[in-house]
Amino acid sequence: MKRFLCGLLALCLLSCLPVSAAESQRLTLRYQQTGDGVRLTLEGLEEEIYALQLELVLEGELSRASFTPAQRDVYSPDCHLETGRNETSVTVYLVAEEAPLEGKSLFLGTLDLEGRPELPARADLLLLDRNLKALTDGRVPLSADRPDSSAGAPYRVHILPSDHGTVTVRPTGAKEGETVTLSVAPDAGYALSAITAKDARNREVSLSRDGLNRYTFPMPASDVEVLASFVQGGGLPFLDVAPGDWCYDAVRYIFEAGLMNGTTATTFTPSSPTTRGMIVAILYRLEGSPAAGTALFTDVAPTAYYASAVAWASASGIVNGYNDGTFRPNQLITREQLAAFLHRYASYKGRNVSGEADLSAFIDAGQIASYAVTPLRWATAAGLINGVSADRLAPAGNATRAQAAVILTRFMQNVL
User: Fold this and answer.
1) How far is 57 from 399, CA to CA, in rounded Å?
2) What are the domain boundaries of the chain?
3) What is the pLDDT of residue 377?
4) Side-chain half-sphere of 359: how many Cα atoms within 13 Å?
5) Are 101 and 38 in contact (CB under 8 A)?
6) Whole-prediction pTM
C-alpha cells in the first residue's frame, strides 16, 4: 500500500498537472543562500500534505541543477529542467512514502543551481493531500534570506554510488560541528570492506564507529563525500539458520554487527531462550562498551561476562534489579522486560519514544506488568514487537534468540 500510494502520487506530479495563476495567500517560500546551494523552506503550512511540485523560473539558461531532499522516506527524482527564451524552469518533486510532510516551517531540501543563488522570477506550487486532492495550486510568494555567517552555513553530505551495498546519512545537511551519522547496509552475501569520508579539499574526515555498521563524524566547514566498498562474504556460518528462514536477515545483521555470536562455531540455536544478562551485554556492545563501575547487585560477580554491562545499564537507568538486591542475570528475559530495556535505552539515546499503540485487541493485555505497559505500547507502535498471534501478545513469554535478533535489528534500523 505504501509503495502504491507513493507511485500514484508520483505519477500525478510527474504528469505535469497544470498550475493555475491563483496565488497562495498563506504560504511563503523561504529562499536561503548557503555555501553549497539554496535551502528551500515552506513557511505557513497548516495541513498535512503527501506530495508537492515546486516550479522555480530563473533568468538565463542552466545546463544542469540538482536537488537534495531534507527528509528521509520520500520519493524525490532529480530536478526537471526546461530552458528557452533566456530563462530556465527548475521543477522539484517530493512524495511522502508513508508519513505526511508536515510542519508550519517545512524544510524541503537544498537546490544546487551551478552557483547561482539569485531569487527566481516566480515560484509555482502544487500540494496534494492523501486523497490526491489539490490543497494549493498556484503562485507562492518568495522570501530571500541572507546566509547567517555567525551561525555557520549548512553543508551537504554526498554519498557516492557503491556496488553491493548502500549507505544512508542522517541528516543530509549539517552545520559545522554538528554530528552526522552514516548507516551501512551490505547486500546479502556481502560485507563492508572500507568506508571513507573526505571534505571539499580532499582531506580525510575521521569516522568514529558507533555500533555495528554505523559511523559518526563532526561536520567540517565544507561538503563531505562518502565512499563505501563491499566485498563478497558476510554469509552466516550457522547450519541451523538458512537463507529464506524468517529470522535469517536479522541474525546475519546482528551477527555481522558483532552483537550476537553463535552458541557454537556452526550453530546459532535460534529457538533457545535469552537471559537478562545476555540482552544487557548486547546493549552494552551496541553502546560501544563504555567504561563502567561495579554492579551493585549481590548476584553479579565482578568476573562475569555481563558485569560491566549490568553496571553501565544500571547506572544509566536502563535496567533495574529486584527488591531483594539481585539482578538475576541468568533468568530468562520476558518479552515485556525486553521492551522495557529497549524503551529506556532509546530514551537514554535521546530518541522519540512518544508513540503508543492500542493493545486492547490482545486478550492478554491485562496481564502486562504495570512498569511495562508504556514500553510495550511504544515497542508495538514502533514495529519492534508483534503479537505471537492475532489476539495474544504473550508479555510474560520468553524471547528466543531468533526473536531477540529480529527485535534488536528492527530497533537498530528504525529507532537508533
Assistant:
1) 58
2) 2-145, 155-232, 248-414
3) 94
4) 27
5) no
6) 0.51
Over the stretch 269-311, which tens digit does the pLDDT of each residue have? 999 999 999 999 999 988 888 888 888 899 999 999 999 999 9
- pLDDT category of residue 186 using cuts at 50, 70 and 90: confident
- Which H or E run includes 328? none
**Helix count (H) and strand count (E) of the chain?**
7, 19
C-alpha pair distances (Å), 113 with each of 14, 36, 55, 57:
21, 9, 14, 12
Residue 369: which of 337, 321, 407, 328 has the closest Cα? 337
Distance CA 68, CA 384 (A): 30
Rounded to an integer, the average pLDDT of 105-129 is: 80
CA–chain centroid gap for 82, Å, is: 34
For 2-145, the fitting CATH number among 1.10.1060, 1.10.150, 2.60.40, 1.10.3470 is: 2.60.40
Confidence class for position 18, pLDDT limits 50, 70, 90: very low
The three grid cell numbers given for residue 401, joined into one nine-digit string = 534468540
Contacts of 16 (CB under 8 A, 6+ apart): none
For the chain, give the percent of residues with pLDDT over 90. 30
Among residues 365, 327, 343, 310, the alpha carbon closest in space to that of 411 is found at 343
Our CA angle for 70, 74, 80, nearest 5°, is: 80
**Cα 104 to Cα 41: distance, rounded to the nearest angstrom:** 10
Residue 64, number of CB atoms within 10 A of its CB: 10
Instruction: State the Rg of the chain over Cα.
Output: 25
Same fold for the pair 2-145 and 155-232: yes
State how far the alpha carbon of 43 is from the alpha carbons of 27, 29, 404, in Å.
6, 6, 43
**Which pLDDT score is estimated for 292?**
86
- CATH fold of 155-232, please? Immunoglobulin-like (2.60.40)
Whether the CB-CB separation of 90 and 5 falls below 8 Å is answered with no
Burial 247-275 (b: 16+ CB within 10 A, else e): bbebbbbbbbbebbebeeeeebebeebbb
Average pLDDT over residues 334-357: 92
The CA distance from 259 to 284, in Å, is: 9
DSSP at 101: B
Q: Which three cell numbers stand for residue 160?
A: 557516492
Confidence at residue 227, expressed as pLDDT on a 0 to 100 scale: 92
